[in-house]
Write a structure and sequence with these properties.
The complex is a heterodimer of chains A (299) and B (315). Chain A is built from 15 helices and 2 strands. Chain A has 299 residues and is mostly helical. In chain A, strands 1-2 form a two-stranded antiparallel ribbon. In chain A, a hairpin with a 2-residue loop joins strand 1 (256-257) and strand 2. In chain A, helix 3 packs across helix 15 and helix 6 packs across helix 12 (215-231). The radius of gyration of chain A is 24 Å and the shape is globular. In chain B, helix 5 packs antiparallel against helix 11. With 315 residues, chain B is mainly α. Chain B contains 15 helices and 2 strands. The longest helix of chain B has 36 residues, at 83-118. In chain B, strands 1-2 form a two-stranded antiparallel sheet. Classes of the chains: A mainly alpha (299), B mainly alpha (315). The interface between A and B is large, with 129 and 133 residues.
């Protein structure tokens, strides 16, 4: 189980996993650093450019001579995005928060219950249900978006945050359940047994014993569910047309008017949109990287 | 497999003799798993079936449909008179190029990054955080950033290329049919590689170091260790990653939608974009549902393979 193995920090250093890039091989190591540096630059540059653009004045942006470093720093784009009279950014940002938080909360709540049942309880059809979860998790949104569009239309849930939350549950609930299942399996049963012997109900055992023990997995799961929902594009594009019901990423389209692109404002808004998932990622990074591999690919 | 997991395998439930045909804990079991089950059936299985039902009809948005059997399928696949026929086959081909190109790029860059990040490099933590960064940012955000960088008037790429004298006139990265798909692929690979790096890295770290030590004692070269130890050990991770990423890459249309929206002249129109334009812009839900469903067998195969592996190793 990846989670267990990766928790030992010495595991990496003690095993020279590939001689090509191991210390003793100076030549390869130098080549490795050069490649690493190039890849770092290629990864970082778009971020830098986004940030740099958001601080440039329009006069600086729309000159044919493009300077790598902004000639002067201005906050006008951020000001316009956040406080501009016709800007919907604030509303859309809050929409995103509502949708992502609701999705995360429901996914974790249902996932914890379902995951517990599927790992610890004995009932007919649980193996089939576990399999169904994986199928559902991988079910492609490109096949589901038209029927979901028609369904939401019939229920009057188009252009509503609730419709969007429902659509996001299609991937977040199977994902959370599956991931929490994986973690529950690694927890020793004895603690629950002791609680059950002491007269606790299964329900109490789940919320008081198992879930607190699974806290790291719950955190990772929450980070994922939130990020997936925050970054989701297809359903948000298809289900919501009203500007005041859009999520913040889709709202970026408002900075294109006809063939006029308001790049400064767009990059400022884009930067602000990136903040929540980025903050979560940096905060939960260690667990996230382990959890990602544990949840998606078990080795 | 660690001892911890082996110990945890015998669960409370299986340790008990089974009396009820539904299982010992069936009441609580069903009660707890029912909400998840409802979501899976109501929001995934039902829409999937409904999509199939729509594909058997001639149905427009806001009007009742008429049952036409497999006429939509015939029209899309074989009716060379229909405009949708050409559009479909062109989109199938572009989808293949797009997904194949993206996966190949991510495989190569992801593998190289994982191998380097797994070695004893300095500031490993910093490099890892940096290389994983594109994954956490909404793809839509980076799609717009790339669109801005590809801009022909004051985009940074054209400015840089003109600046060092490589080109005289700006390159129309997104507006020329022969460049558009490549331009998109660069951005998609940039955004999608972290997932591959991450899973490969996990796979590499799961290989016991003793294997390499033993090989070294036996006089194996670095290259031989890679071919005989590293590759076989991470093969299953590679297979699962390829399958998962194929599914996700096909589904992630942000970059195409923002950078070219299928253009110029349909040069980058993968099947999801065609389905959107048919189903939701031309209001033909029957054809719109048929197009993605034609790819269903491929998805089903990949999901089957991934699921088999996930369930096998997950138990």
């Amino acid at each position: 189980m990846a989670v267990v193995q990766h928790s030992s920090p010495s595991g990496i250093a003690s095993a020279p996993l590939l001689g090509w890039f191991a210390k003793k091989n100076r030549g390869y190591l130098t080549a490795g650093y050069i490649i690493l540096f190039l890849m770092g630059a290629w990864t970082a540059f778009p971020f830098y450019w986004q940030l740099a653009t958001s601080f440039r004045s329009d006069a600086d942006l729309y000159t044919p001579v493009v300077a790598l470093i902004p000639r002067a720093i201005t906050f006008e784009h951020y000001y316009n995005v956040l406080f501009g009279a016709r800007s919907q950014f604030g509303v859309q940002f809050v929409n995103s928060l509502i949708v992502a938080l609701a999705t995360t909360f429901i996914a974790i709540f249902l996932g914890a219950m379902g995951g517990y049942a599927l790992t610890r309880l004995n009932f007919f059809g649980r193996a089939e249900m576990a399999r169904l979860l994986v199928y559902a998790y991988l079910a492609p949104g490109t096949i589901l978006f038209i029927p979901l569009y028609v369904m939401m239309n019939n229920f009057g849930l188009r252009d509503s945050l609730m419709g969007l939350v429902l659509a996001h549950l299609t991937f977040s609930v199977p994902f959370s359940t599956w991931m929490l299942m994986g973690y529950f399996k690694t927890l020793p049963v004895e603690l629950e047994e002791a609680a059950l012997v002491d007269g606790a109900s299964r329900w109490t055992a789940l919320w008081r014993i198992v879930l607190p023990l699974a806290a790291p997995a719950v955190v990772v799961c929450a980070v994922f569910a939130f990020t997936l929902s925050w970054n989701e594009f297809l359903y948000a594009l298809v289900l919501v047309q009203a500007k005041d019901k859009m999520t913040a990423p889709i709202g970026l389209t408002s900075y294109v008017v006809g063939d006029q692109f308001y790049w400064g404002q767009m990059m400022a808004a884009a930067t602000l949109v990136s903040v929540p998932p980025l903050a979560l990622y940096l905060f939960g990074q260690r667990w996230v990287i382990q959890g990602w591999t544990a949840g998606a690919v078990k080795s | 497999m660690s001892t911890l997991q082996v110990a945890a395998r015998g669960s409370v439930a299986t340790a008990q003799p089974r009396r009820n045909p539904f299982g010992r804990d069936w009441k609580l079991g069903y009660a707890l798993s029912l909400p998840v089950f409802f979501v899976v059936i109501g929001l995934v299985a039902y829409p999937l079936a409904y999509s199939f039902w729509l594909s058997l009809q001639d149905v427009k948005v806001g009007a009742p449909g008429t049952f036409v059997g497999f006429a939509n399928y015939y029209k899309v696949l074989f009716d060379s008179e229909a405009r949708i026929h050409d559009a479909f086959w062109s989109s199938a081909w572009i989808t293949l190029l797009y997904v194949g190109g993206a996966c190949l790029g991510k495989l190569i860059i992801g593998m190289v990054s994982a191998l380097i990040l797994n070695a004893e490099i300095k500031a490993r933590h910093f490099w890892r955080s940096l290389l994983f960064l594109p994954w956490s940012i909404p793809a839509l955000v980076t799609a717009y950033t790339w669109k801005w960088m590809y801009n022909d008037v004051n985009g940074v790429y054209n400015a840089a290329l003109t600046g060092i004298g490589l080109i005289d006139a700006p390159i129309l990265f997104l507006a020329k049919p022969e460049y558009a798909l490549w331009s998109i692929l660069f951005a998609v690979i940039w955004q999608g590689t972290p997932f591959w790096t991450m899973t490969f890295l996990a796979g590499l770290q799961a290989i016991p170091g003793e294997l390499y030590e033993a090989a070294e004692i036996d006089g194996a070269t670095t290259f031989k260790s890679f071919v005989y130890i590293t590759l076989p050990s991470i093969m299953s991770v590679v297979v699962v990653t390829v399958m998962l990423s194929t599914i996700w890459t096909t589904n992630s249309i942000q970059f195409i939608y923002i950078l070219t929206n299928g253009g110029p002249g349909g040069a980058t129109e993968t099947f999801p974009l065609l389905a959107i334009s048919q189903g939701l812009r031309s209001y033909d839900l029957g054809i719109g549902s048929t197009i993605p469903l034609l790819f269903f067998p491929f998805f089903a195969f990949m999901i089957y393979v991934v699921t088999k592996r996930m369930l096998k190793t997950g138990e």
